Amino acid sequence: MKTIWCLALLVVLFLTTGVCAAEIPDLRGNWSGHWSMYYMAEGYSESTENGSITASFAEQKDRIFNGNLIFKEENRPDFKTGFAGAIGLDNMTFYMAEFDEGYALGTLISNDEMEVLYLADGDNTSVVIDRLYRIKE
Questions:
Q1: To 5 degrees, how large is the angle CA 123–CA 119–CA 110?
Q2: Which stretches within the chain are classed as H helix?
Q3: Phi/psi at 82 (nearest 5 deg)?
Q4: Chain-centre distance for alpha carbon 52
Q5: Residue 11 CB-density burial (10 A; 0-12 exposed, 13-18 middle, 19+ buried)
Q6: Torsion of CA 6, 12, 14, 17, to 10 degrees
Q7: How many CA atoms are closer than 13 Å to the CA of 109, on its beta-carbon side?
């Protein structure tokens, strides 16, 4: 019986070590892509071939990061805002707070692809789904 408990303890320790040793993804660099959105004042819209979103992840220390977002849309001035965020324990989900307003929840689909869901309430209520791809440099 003592042998079974020792083996069970070793298995648990081995599995726990594997979970803790998961590598934190490196988000640094530039990501670009497209979006679909609902903005309370204007309704539904999507990015066109003349519109884009670029996320520049400037710094990352362990699971915490920061950077800038730039939105380009036809017939509108570019919009730029900063953000800071954290990667969840599963190393696939992440959470961002934009410096102007709003929050985003993201999922890493692969090392080079992510989906980001943005939410803002109040007078500027909006919901945005971004699909971003790492720009290879």
A1: 160
A2: 2-20
A3: -90, 165
A4: 16
A5: exposed
A6: -140
A7: 10
Are the beta carbons of 88 and 66 closer than 8 angstroms?
no
Comparing CA positions, the residue from 105, 112, 99 lying closest to residue 128 is 105
Residue bearing the bigger pLDDT, 65 or 8: 65
Give the residue-averaged pLDDT of 103-123: 95
pTM, two decimals, is: 0.78
CA pair distance 101, 103, nearest whole angstrom:
7
Q: Which of 69, 75, 82 is nearest to 48 (CA)?
A: 75
Instruction: Classify 124 as helix, strand or coil.
Output: helix
| Beta bridge partners of residue 86, listed in sequence order | 64, 95
- CATH C-level class of 25-134: mainly beta
Regarding predicted confidence, which is higher, 73 or 105? 105
85 pLDDT band, cuts 50/70/90, is very high
φ, ψ for residue 7, nearest 5 deg: -65, -40
Asked if residue 116 lies in contact with residue 96, where contact means CB atoms within 8 angstroms, the answer is yes
